[in-house]
Every structure is written in structure tokens, then in C-alpha cells.
Design brief:
The chain is α/β, with parallel strands linked by helices. It has 3 domains: 40 residues, no CATH class; 140 residues, Periplasmic binding protein-like II (D-Maltodextrin-Binding Protein, domain 2, 3-Layer(aba) Sandwich); 97 residues, D-Maltodextrin-Binding Protein, domain 2 (3-Layer(aba) Sandwich), CATH 3.40.190.10. The protein contains 11 helices and 14 strands. Strands 3, 7, 8, 9, 10, 11, 12, 13 and 14 form a 9-stranded mixed β-sheet that branches. A 3-stranded antiparallel β-sheet has the order 4-5-6, with helices on one face. Strand 10, helix 7 and strand 11 form a beta-alpha-beta unit. Helix 10 crosses helix 11. The termini are far apart.
Length: 305
């Protein structure tokens, strides 16, 4: 028995005894396997990263549990039927389909933005998909997946605006009035793109849009995703210059320490954006942002160029 067990690490990096993973690093302290209980006192014993308790538990449970929001279109919000919809919701359903071949096998836990990370750390959810901006600070608390969207600041103009592109707005200097949601960094943010523009700040998004509709502002500066969604909801009423700025990355997040689970979610996202599930990802992108994505190039994988 001892000789058989000790031979396994020569072919593989580990073996399992009574549910415990034993690595080559543990061999010095389990050389004598006449008393197997010594295994439990190996000070260097550790679980292997490719063993995925999370994926196993999700599959055994029969559904994926995802933390998200309910009040932010086009990301996660309640439709007329009271059910959650939006781009984040579609991304979560893609993961459920990857697990169960059924996108409906997902339970959504509605959470505040402040709960996105704590709910992961306490295992209330399997993953959070709630337009989470990736930062180095947050990456010390959770593991981020591949990015599924790149956010930025865009400009919303009336369809009949005399300004067409960003250069037209820049040339107008301080003759341009830009409405923006009130924020300590609002003027600085607008002036990154339009250094001389006048900035009017508003207490709510609705008031900001009303300023554009009434002609009190020439443009509104807000998240580009919101600009795109508003144009989808109001065909022919608005337009937006191609230019956007202040990039930030949106990713889902999972609890740290389970590389297999992270790898699985990354595989789902990668194939959604580049492979067999691209039609599903592209249809969602079109629905919420009004953009037709180009089909991934066939041949050498573009992500490795």
C-alpha cells in the first residue's frame, strides 16, 4: 500500500486520501505511511488550486447564484413583468448555460453596490455580476474575471445638433454648455475632453437629460453605455460623437482561492466574446447598446496577435 501510494506522485503532482489532497511537498513528512493518520499532521498540506469546491457545489445544487442590482438600466433592472433583465443579467445566464446547458438555472440575489464584495467573501453568492469597475485595490479582495465591457464617458446630443463630432465641440470653446450629474470631479471630467466648455451640474440624471431636451445644454456627459441605451430607447431623437474617454473595465468577480472556478467563468466569457457563444453575446450587446459587433476573425486567434 505504501509503495503504491508513493509511486503516484511520480506520475502526477498529487493524490487524494480521504478527501485530502497530498502534494509532493508533503512527502518528507509522510514517507512512513504505516500510520496514515500522520497525513493529517503534515504542516505543509494544502488543497490544490485545480480542485474546485465552488464548481462542484454549484453543480450539485443545480443552479448558479449571482449577486446583481435591480435599478440600473441597461445593466440590471426590472422589466415590465417584474423580472430582472439587462446586460449583466445576460452575462450571468451565459455562465448558467455553460454549467447546465440551461440559461434559466440561475438565482439572482439583489444587492447594493456596497455588498458586491462582502457577499462573495461570505459565500452568499457564487459570483457578482454588477458592472464592477476593476481596480487594483478590489483585486486584493476578490478575483476578477475577463472583462466583458469597457465603459467610458460619452456625449449625448440632440439628433439635430449643429455639432457632429468632438472636434466641432472643441472648436466652439466656451460656447458649448455640457450638462453633467453633480459630482466633485464633474468639471474635471468634462474638461478632459472639452477643456473650454461650460459645465452645468444637475442633481439627477433626469434633470441632466431635460437640459439637453430643452436646449439649455448642448450635450450631456455620462456613461457611454447610458448614452447608447438612451439612443436605443429613443430612435432618431439623439446622436453621439464617436469619441469617448476615461476608460474603465467591467468584470464579474468571484471569491479568491479557487482557480478552477475562475478559469471556468473566464472560459464562458471568452467563448461568448470570441467563439461558439458569440451570437448570444452579440445579440445582447445589440439589444442593450444598439451596436452590431463584428464577427471574430476566423483563423489565428486575434487575442494572441
Amino acid at each position: 500500500m505504501a509503495h503504491f501510494l508513493l509511486s503516484i506522485p511520480l506520475l502526477h503532482t498529487c493524490f487524494r486520501y480521504s478527501g485530502i489532497n497530498i502534494t509532493l511537498e508533503c512527502l518528507p513528512c509522510i514517507a512512513d505511511l504505516r500510520c496514515l493518520k500522520r497525513v493529517f499532521f503534515c504542516s505543509r498540506l494544502r488543497p490544490l488550486s485545480w480542485v474546485s469546491p465552488k464548481r462542484d457545489s454549484v453543480l450539485a445544487r443545480g443552479k448558479l447564484i449571482v449577486g446583481t442590482g435591480s435599478t440600473n438600466a441597461p445593466w440590471h433592472f426590472q422589466g415590465a413583468d417584474g423580472k430582472l433583465q439587462g446586460f449583466d443579467i445576460d452575462i450571468a445566464r451565459m455562465v448558467a448555460k455553460g454549467l447546465f446547458n440551461d440559461p434559466s438555472k440561475v438565482e439572482f440575489v439583489v444587492q447594493s453596490s456596497d455588498a458586491r464584495i462582502p457577499n462573495l467573501l461570505t459565500d452568499k453568492v457564487d459570483m457578482s455580476c454588477q458592472f464592477i469597475t476593476v481596480t487594483a485595490s478590489r483585486a486584493q479582495q476578490v478575483a476578477f474575471t475577463l472583462p466583458y465591457y469597457r465603459e467610458g464617458v460619452g456625449l449625448l446630443l440632440p439628433a439635430n445638433s449643429k455639432y457632429k463630432e468632438i472636434d466641432d465641440l472643441k472648436a466652439a470653446g466656451d460656447g458649448v454648455i455640457v450638462a453633467v450629474l453633480q459630482n466633485v470631479y464633474a468639471e474635471e471630467l468634462v474638461h478632459q475632453a472639452l477643456p473650454k466648455a461650460k459645465v452645468d451640474q444637475y442633481d439627477s440624471v433626469d434633470l441632466m437629460y431635460q437640459a439637453v431636451n430643452s436646449g439649455r445644454a448642448d450635450a450631456a456627459a455620462t456613461d457611454q453605455s447610458s448614452v447608447k441605451y438612451l439612443m436605443v430607447q429613443n430612435p432618431g431623437r439623439y446622436r453621439s460623437p464617436a469619441y469617448a474617454w476615461s476608460p474603465q473595465t467591467y468584470s464579474c468577480a468571484v471569491k479568491r482561492g479557487d482557480q478552477d472556478w475562475l478559469n471556468f467563468v473566464n472560459t464562458v466569457l471568452h467563448e461568448g466574446m470570441t467563439g461558439v457563444e458569440f451570437p448570444t453575446y452579440a445579440a445582447s450587446f445589440k439589444q442593450w447598446f444598439g451596436v452590431d459587433l463584428p464577427t471574430p476573425a476566423i483563423g489565428f486567434p486575434a487575442e494572441f496577435k
